[in-house]
Specification:
The complex is a heterodimer.
Chain A lengths: L1 E11 L2 E10 L1 E7 L5 H8 L7 E7 L4 E4 L12 H7 L4 H7 L15 H13 L5 E5 L7 H13 L4 E5 L11 E6 L2 E6 L13 H8 L9 H9 L2
Parallel strand pairs in A: 3-7, 3-8, 5-6, 6-7
Antiparallel strand pairs in A: 1-2, 1-4, 8-9
Helix pairs in contact in A: 2-3
Chain B lengths: L3 H17 L1 H14 L3 H6 L3 H17 L4 H20 L5 H46 L5 H28 L18 H16 L10
Helix pairs in contact in B: 1-2, 1-5, 1-8, 2-5, 2-8, 4-5, 6-7
Classes of the chains: A alpha/beta, B mainly alpha.
Chain lengths: 230, 216
């Protein structure tokens, strides 16, 4: 199972983004500045935006899902219960697992952004999609929730997971790091070596790399282990 | 046409004459064919065809119930095409400049700012709509009447949130009323002739045919 981008290009006026790379199973992290084209690339990978040039090849991918940065876009139910059911899920265990068991009859649009994000991610992560694309999955979440999501993502034993994020502190263990700059997707490589080439790396990861204590990966445990070795 | 004052004035004149009579609609349509990128505008703006289709439905109903549906359809279609042309050349801030030029730094500024906010919101609504439809497709929700309600709910909710955010931002920045804007306008070569011919089209539409020709 893999996703291949062969110079897939999207153009909007004078702006464009080109992506070339192969995404095998595992978690891939893609970072980039605001406006660099992360969400556009996510749409291409999800098959929602055909590239103007180049191509995208999906091999053995039979199910795909994208989670947009703003969870409101995904809402089709008028109550939290209906929203869970619209995903084909039993509301009771799901809502209990995310601390929203008393909000069955609440309008999802009346939940706080953090609560709605929790609900949306819980619905999406209840399934094992072959290709799961998460656009800013950690936005609006507190540290505990970010850690919980990372743990669920790490537990996905099959499929391709692609994270587009600005997150600077909490990450799952990833297979490969990518970044977007100069209108192109660049491969930084796999950790730990890939961390040396990661231009958008959070400051403390860069500091660890500069000190020669390169973490094995980017999960909080790996970073803690590297920091303790100083 | 880059000068927003000429563009708005021209669009207003042509819309009025198109709505006023069939002769006006024909004159405005000819002007639209000659002075705008015409079909390129229609292809570029995906709201044009649905808007015209909606007018067509009302026109058919009007025609079937004894009204002049065909004439109504043609006149409204021309009004839509003129409106699309007006907005197609829009650049950020130009309505604010026009408002201040026309009505000064208090009322003009506020009206201009409202127009700018409205257009920004229209742009945001289109982006939201695309995302919601994409999310629905991924979720397996089919397009149709059933999907209209959730889409509408989320769009209205998003619009209200944005309006609230904007209001709070203005209040936090101490906005009370009016403002200062040094108005500037860009103009290109064909602006004046295009505006002139729009006025000619209006005259042709409004002056009775007998004023031009001696009819026996």
């Amino acid at each position: 199972m893999r996703l291949v981008l062969d110079d897939a290009t999207v153009t909007r006026g004078e702006w464009h983004i080109t992506a070339h790379g192969t995404f095998p199973e595992g978690i891939h992290l893609i970072s980039g500045n605001v406006g660099s084209g992360k969400s556009t690339l996510a749409l291409i990978m999800a098959g929602l935006l055909p590239p103007a040039a180049g191509s995208m090849i999906s091999e053995e991918i039979s199910s795909r899902m994208i989670s947009f940065q703003f969870p409101e876009y995904h809402i089709t139910g008028t109550t939290v219960r209906e929203e869970c059911e619209s995903w084909g899920l039993d509301p009771n265990p799901l809502l209990s697992s995310i601390g929203l068991k008393d909000r069955h009859d609440c309008d999802p649009l009346r939940l706080s952004r953090g609560e709605l994000k929790r609900l949306h991610l819980a619905c999406i992560l209840a399934y094992q999609y072959d290709l799961l694309i998460l656009d800013e999955p950690f936005s609006s979440l507190d540290v505990c929730e970010k850690r919980r999501i990372c743990s669920i993502l790490s537990g996905r034993n099959r499929g391709i997971t692609i994270l587009f994020t600005h997150e600077q502190a909490i990450f799952p263990r990833v297979r490969h790091i990518w970044e977007i700059h100069d209108n192109q997707l660049h491969s930084c490589g796999s950790p730990p070596d890939g961390l040396r080439h990661w231009q958008h790396a959070p400051a403390f990861i860069r500091k660890l790399v500069d000190l020669g204590k390169v973490p094995k990966n980017i999960s909080p445990e790996d970073l803690e282990a590297a920091a303790c070795a100083i | 046409m880059r000068d927003i004052r000429l563009r708005t004035g021209t669009a207003t004149i042509l819309s009025v004459i198109a709505f006023y009579s069939i002769t006006g609609a024909v004159a405005a349509f000819v002007w639209w064919l000659v002075f705008t990128p015409n079909l390129a505008l229609v292809r570029k703006n995906r709201l044009v065809i649905p808007s015209i289709a909606m007018i067509a439905i009302f026109s058919i109903i009007l025609e079937l119930t004894g009204g002049a549906g065909l004439a109504y359809f043609f006149r409204m279609m021309v009004v839509i095409l003129i409106g699309v042309w007006l907005l197609s050349g829009q650049t950020r801030g130009e309505f604010l400049h026009m408002g201040c030029w026309l009505l000064g730094n208090r009322i003009g500024f506020e009206l201009g700012m409202l127009a700018e906010m409205g257009l920004q919101n229209l742009h945001a609504l289109l982006i939201d709509f695309d995302r919601i439809r994409a999310a629905e497709r991924m979720k397996g929700v089919r397009s149709g009447l059933q999907s209209i309600v959730p889409v509408g709910r989320v769009l209205v909710h998003g619009t209200l949130l944005r309006a609230e955010d904007t209001a709070e931002l203005l209040a936090v920045r101490g906005y009370v009323q009016g403002g200062t804007c040094v108005v500037t306008f860009a103009r290109e070569k064909g602006d004046i002739p295009a505006a002139f011919f729009a006025v000619c089209a209006a005259l042709i539409a409004m002056i009775p045919v007998s004023a031009f020709f001696i009819l026996s």
